[in-house]
């Protein structure tokens, strides 16, 4: 009778903790989103930034389909530290001209 030796390898799994995002230049700053589509503007903003939308035509329309809208103006201006403040984006439909 042949004896078999069973070798069991112990696999040690190391739990990797994702690193927190580095703040290279201090607090989060408002990106330049004026002139972009609304979907691109949302992607440029940090996920936890509160965003208010304002109808650029003053008609009080609500944005139901962001891909159909573009950003004409933004508050605060690009480069301004957000410091927990909401961003306000003035938007119009993509086929409309931005107000002067």
Tell me about this structure:
With 100 residues, the chain is mainly beta. Helix content is 7%, strand content 19%. The chain contains one helix and three strands, in the order αβββ. The longest helix has 7 residues, at 38-44.
Keywords:
single chain, 100 residues, mainly beta, three-stranded mixed β-sheet, 1 helix, 19% strand, elongated
Provide the fold topology:
Elements: H1 38-44, E1 51-55, E2 69-75, E3 87-93
Parallel strand pairs: 1-3
Antiparallel strand pairs: 2-3
Strands, total number: 3
| Rg value | 24 Å
Mean pLDDT: 82
**Helical coverage, percent range:** under 10%
The N- and C-terminal alpha carbons lie at a distance of 94 Å
Biggest β-sheet description: 3 strands, mixed
The run of helices and strands is HEEE
State the gist of this model.
The protein contains 1 helix and 3 strands, in the order αβββ. The protein is mainly beta and 100 residues long.
């Amino acid at each position: 009778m042949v004896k078999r030796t069973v070798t069991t390898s112990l696999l040690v799994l190391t739990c990797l903790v994702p690193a927190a995002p580095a703040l290279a230049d201090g607090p989060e700053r408002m990106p330049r989103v004026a002139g972009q589509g609304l979907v691109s503007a949302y992607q440029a903003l940090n996920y936890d930034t509160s965003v208010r939308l304002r109808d650029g035509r003053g008609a009080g329309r609500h944005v139901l389909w962001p891909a159909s809208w573009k950003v004409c103006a933004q508050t605060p201006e690009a480069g301004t530290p957000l410091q927990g403040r909401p961003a306000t984006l003035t938007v119009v439909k993509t086929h409309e001209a931005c107000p002067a």
